[in-house]
């Protein structure tokens, strides 16, 4: 599946920071990971640290799938509001799902420190009511988050405009959020290895056949090589529809635009991550090199050609959106792109084993904050592969 089109900013900015070989031999390994985007890279990072032998393969050049198109706003909030998720799965489970995402932001901060990655920055997050009718449920959401232990403030209409310079009908300000360069982080994660060990990361290696059995998994590559493993982890993201027969994800197309570089900062108070209650919602962040990124205007995904035809129109619409929001910003687009992502019925990812595929595991960080879910997935799968119980597994299982 063609997962993105246009000129993703992170790919243009970073190019190909590292290169990886194509698999040209047979392999026997403890664990094989299919997918070397941010999800697969985080799983591998945890397994390497746990001393588990693993091999990672990807059909593309590393990072050129959804990861390069990610806008990488790191938030504990998921696409389903906490108060609504509570109604769906109960208070304890809903709060735990949100808290895991909050913890994942702190985890990512520690990981990026080890790589001296300058693309990570702690931020606050501002979630504002686009319409007056949204205020009542947004206040409900504020109370739910406060009860769950998050540091949040409520802003009324006047406070929002006075402090942040744009119009809305009320907002939640959260103290925990961050932004990152997901593409560069992925490359750094895939370079991580224990001393004296091979990386065992291969790109441009499509898999043509997979056989699961009670003793392990056997994969055949397009070039005719065999990979034998005890366990297989699918970190294939939205291409999971090629591997399982369960209808778990609704595919959408999102659009993003990055401005020309500005000479001066800051752009608005604290350069908070901004998103709103519209459906589809608008989201805004800054970049380390003095640019503004705006995204949204999502559409149901039907095929790449239809999605890609909309880039120019969506670029104009998003440019108008941000200039209407901040008239003095004089936003001028320089890079724009579109990417395919997925949403689930409850906004939660799918993590863990799938009964029909013995010795197969999944880390599928669907939704608007798939990167934080990818951290959670890596932690859970690392526990399972070490024979440990993980109490959070049931939250994200295929049988939930």
Key structural traits:
400 residues, alpha+beta, 10-stranded mixed beta sheet, 18 strands
Structural class: alpha+beta
Determine the number of helices (DSSP H or I, runs of at least 4 residues).
11
Helix content: 25-40%
Radius of gyration: 21 Å
Proportion of strand residues: 25-35%
Walk me through what this model shows.
Helix content is 31%, strand content 28%. It has helices at residues 9-14, 38-49, 66-69, 82-89, 91-115, 135-147, 157-164, 182-191, 304-309, 311-325, 370-385, and strands at residues 4-6, 27-34, 54-57, 73-75, 121-128, 152-155, 171-179, 201-202, 207-213, 216-221, 226-234, 250-259, 273-276, 283-287, 291-300, 333-343, 350-353, 360-364. It is globular and about 65 Å long.
Per-chain topology:
Elements: E1 4-6, H1 9-14, E2 27-34, H2 38-49, E3 54-57, H3 66-69, E4 73-75, H4 82-89, H5 91-115, E5 121-128, H6 135-147, E6 152-155, H7 157-164, E7 171-179, H8 182-191, E8 201-202, E9 207-213, E10 216-221, E11 226-234, E12 250-259, E13 273-276, E14 283-287, E15 291-300, H9 304-309, H10 311-325, E16 333-343, E17 350-353, E18 360-364, H11 370-385
Parallel strand pairs: 2-3, 2-11, 3-8, 5-13, 11-18
Antiparallel strand pairs: 1-16, 4-7, 5-7, 6-7, 9-10, 10-11, 12-15, 12-16, 13-14, 14-15, 17-18
Helix pairs in contact: 2-8, 2-11, 4-5, 5-11
Short recap of the structure:
With 400 residues, the protein is of the alpha+beta class. It is 31% helix and 28% strand.
């Amino acid at each position: 599946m063609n997962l993105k089109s246009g000129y993703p900013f992170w790919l243009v900015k970073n190019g190909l920071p590292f290169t990886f070989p194509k698999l040209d031999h047979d392999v026997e390994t403890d664990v094989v990971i299919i997918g070397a985007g941010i999800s697969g890279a985080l799983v591998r990072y945890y397994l390497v640290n746990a001393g588990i032998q693993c091999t990672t393969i990807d059909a593309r050049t590393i990072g050129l799938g959804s990861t390069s198109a990610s806008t990488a706003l790191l938030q504990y909030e998921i696409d389903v509001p906490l108060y609504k998720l509570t109604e769906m799965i109960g208070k304890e489970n809903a709060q735990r799902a949100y808290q895991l995402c909050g913890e994942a932001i702190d985890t990512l901060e520690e990981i990026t420190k080890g790589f001296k990655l300058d693309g990570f920055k702690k931020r606050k997050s501002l979630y504002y009511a686009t319409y007056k009718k949204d205020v009542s449920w947004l206040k409900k959401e504020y109370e739910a988050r406060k009860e769950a232990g998050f540091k949040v403030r409520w802003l009324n209409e006047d406070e929002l405009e006075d402090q942040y310079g744009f119009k809305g009908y009320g907002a939640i300000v959260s103290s925990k959020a961050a932004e990152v360069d997901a593409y560069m982080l992925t490359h750094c994660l895939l370079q991580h290895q224990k001393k004296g060990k091979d990386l065992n990361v291969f790109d441009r290696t499509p898999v043509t056949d997979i056989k699961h059995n009670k003793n392990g998994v056997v994969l055949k590559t397009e070039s005719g090589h065999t990979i034998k493993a005890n366990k297989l982890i699918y970190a294939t993201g939205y291409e999971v529809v090629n591997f399982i027969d369960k209808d778990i994800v609704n595919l959408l197309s999102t659009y993003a635009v990055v401005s020309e570089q500005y000479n001066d900062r800051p752009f608005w108070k604290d350069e908070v991550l901004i998103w709103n209650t519209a459906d589809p919602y608008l989201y805004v962040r800054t970049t380390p090199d003095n640019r503004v990124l705006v995204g949204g205007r999502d559409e149901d995904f039907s095929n790449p050609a239809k999605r890609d035809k909309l880039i120019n129109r969506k670029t104009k619409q998003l440019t108008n959106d941000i200039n209407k929001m901040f008239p003095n910003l004089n936003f001028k687009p320089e890079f724009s792109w579109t990417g395919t992502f997925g949403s689930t019925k409850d906004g939660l990812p799918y993590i863990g084993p799938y009964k029909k595929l013995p010795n197969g595991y999944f880390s599928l960080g669907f939704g608007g904050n798939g990167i934080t879910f990818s951290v959670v997935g890596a932690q859970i799968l690392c526990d399972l592969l070490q024979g440990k119980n993980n109490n959070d597994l049931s939250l994200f299982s295929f049988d939930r």
